[in-house]
Specification:
It is built from five helices and six strands. By secondary structure, the protein is an alpha/beta fold. A four-stranded parallel sheet has the order 2-1-3-4, sandwiched between helices. The chain has a two-stranded antiparallel ribbon with strand order 5-6. Helix 1 crosses helix 5 and helix 2 runs parallel beside helix 3.
Length: about 160
């Protein structure tokens, strides 16, 4: 990769020997598809090949923890990215779902050697989600991929101490 002004490459663009799994929810799919596209595009911009990035789908946010756990257990991946969208409704269901997926992914990060990146939007309105899935506030899927690249680098740096 070259730059027109010979500026140093960002940490996102350096070469890596990395396999990553990206899991998105089918619930609110019009939003999670945009998050997935942002994440996958960012991995490709960082130099990963098609064979380095695997994508998966699960029904909803609560299932993300199970999926990430299984992908970690497979031993095939260096990092997992989970993407979802939970929009507040008129019942406490929003709180239970958000708490479940947040605690589940936090637990995986504290107990496993593979970083799991939390890219789940927890928003009040659909417009809030659209703004964060390629709209006025950027794409949180892209940001999740960037976090995955940095956490992979961090894990490798610690291994090499």
């Amino acid at each position: 990769m070259s730059t027109s002004n010979n500026a140093p490459l960002t940490p996102f663009a350096k070469a890596r020997d990395m396999r990553v799994a990206v899991v998105r929810t089918l619930w609110n799919s019009h939003i999670t598809e945009a998050l997935m596209a942002g994440a996958v595009d960012e991995f490709y911009r960082a130099g990963l090949a098609d064979t380095d990035v695997d994508t998966f789908e699960v029904p909803g946010a609560v299932e993300l923890t199970f999926a990430a756990s299984k992908l970690i257990e497979s031993g095939f991946y260096d990092c997992i990215v989970v993407l979802g969208c939970v929009i507040r409704g008129g019942t406490p269901h929003f709180d239970y779902v958000c708490q479940s997926v947040t605690q589940g992914i936090t637990h995986l990060n504290s107990e496993c050697d593979i970083p799991t990146i939390f890219g789940v939007l927890t928003v009040d309105t659909e417009q809030d989600a659209l703004d964060r899935a390629g709209g006025s506030l950027g794409n949180k899927g892209t940001e999740a991929a960037q976090a995955a690249l940095l956490m992979f680098d961090f894990a490798k740096d610690v291994e090499n101490l």
